[in-house]
Amino acid sequence: MSDRPITDTLIPEWARWAALIWLVVWLPTYSYIWSPTTFLFLCDVGLVLACVGIIMQNALLMSSQAVSSLVVGLAWLIDISWTLIFGKHLIGGTEYFFDSHYPLIVRLMSIYHVALPLILLLLLRRTGYDPRAFRLQSAIAVACLIAARIISPAQNINYDLADPFFRRTWGPAPVHFLVILAFLIFAIYLPTHLVLLQIFRRPQSVRA
């Protein structure tokens, strides 16, 4: 059956237009400043998919990015806050936010890491949480990790070269790949999925 909600009024029209306008502005800006390889990052891929989900009122896409973004957004906020308070990174991955070589407005656009999870939680109250999101997001993670390793192997995109905690590589490339993927799936996606299952109802299109 279709994933599209039965009613066309689950998501306010202004929210759908806002998601579209954000993509129109954000996509070329990030592509110009960071280069197109930025769209190999799971967080950037997730933002695109979430906005498409909002525009199309697709509960599955929005649910998958809720699975991905809640813990990551919190970690991003913690690292930014820790750096502002103590002058050093706790987790890492937010160094660019403090790099004055990049325009401030572009750095501030990355606050979507915090805004997106909150927006998705609000919208899932309207659409419901699609339990297939866990499998979809796991597949997206596999695709992004493989693509990053092939297309840009020197940039440590999605930590495909070194993990964010110990800054080390866990064995040969296939082993490291499996370690990072297992962490994403079992430490981030699965717990978030189980919590969202308890909080939100299922979409009507999935109940049948």
In short:
The protein has about 210 residues and is mostly helical. It contains eight helices and no strands. Helix 2 (about 40-55) runs parallel beside helix 5 (about 110-125), helix 3 (about 60-85) packs antiparallel against helix 5 (about 110-125) and helix 3 (about 60-85) packs across helix 7.
CA-based shape: globular
Largest sheet, strands/sense/barrel: none
Task: Give the domain tally.
Answer: 1
Strand content: under 5%
Radius of gyration: 17 Å
List SSEs in N-to-C order.
HHHHHHHH
Q: Percent of residues in helical segments?
A: 55-70%
How far apart the termini lie comes to 8 Å
- Poorly predicted regions are 4-8
Query: How many distinct beta strands?
Result: 0
The total count of helices amounts to 8
Give the averaged pLDDT, no decimals: 91
Q: What structural category arises from helix and sheet content?
A: mainly alpha
Task: Outline the secondary-structure elements.
Layout (H helix, E strand, L loop, with lengths): L12 H22 L7 H15 L2 H28 L17 H6 L2 H16 L5 H19 L21 H27 L4 H4 L1
Helix pairs in contact: 1-2, 2-3, 2-5, 3-5, 3-6, 3-7, 6-7
Describe this structure in words.
The structure is a single chain. The protein contains eight helices and no strands. It is an all-alpha fold and 208 residues long. It has one domain (13-207). The longest helix has 28 residues, at 59-86. It is globular. The termini are close together. 33% of the residues are buried. Mean pLDDT is 91; it is low at 4-8.
What keywords describe this structure?
mainly alpha; 208 residues; globular
